[in-house]
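Lab notebook, bench 4. The sequencing result for the construct came back, and we need a structural model before the next group meeting so we can plan mutations. Quick request posted to the team channel:

Model the 3D structure of this chain.
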Amino acid sequence: MSYFIFATLLLAAASGIFSLYQHAKKLQQNSYSLLGYFKWLKDSYTAEFALSALLYCAITLAIKNEKEILALILASVLFLLRLIISVKVTKNAKKKLAFTVFVKMLYIIAILMLGALVIVAKLSTDEMISNVFCIVGLLLSTIIPVLTFVAWLITYPISKLMPAKPKKETKTDDEVAD
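Done. Here's the predicted structure in token form:
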């Protein structure tokens, strides 16, 4: 894998992490329910989804046709667009994303998945394995609903296994008097 493709993957992965904010917020607003999240996707996310899919196809085709500099330019455009959108969404939001344990785990899982895919794609000596990890990494990085869904699939069972946070005990009147 060339350094141009590696840089393309890194930019795409970083742009995916920036875009995760809006999706995590929608999940949180729907009590981490996928049904509510998918309803939001269907109703409100069509233009962004189409643009993401188009850029995914363009970057993938550029890499496949060995136009690595074009792929890097497209990934840079994707990164800049998502950075601008992320800053705008965060700044204009009336209600910010609460970084709960679930949201933190969602981010950690997404970062670990994308990082692992990029590293395996770069370090693999088998070209076929490298290409598969590259394409899957690009898919998850550019089509954020897929990244959100896969991260949710991993995070949700883990969150159910975690013990509930114990409530603080209040002192009774007898203990206060002593």
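The chain has a mean pLDDT of 85.
Will bring this to the meeting.
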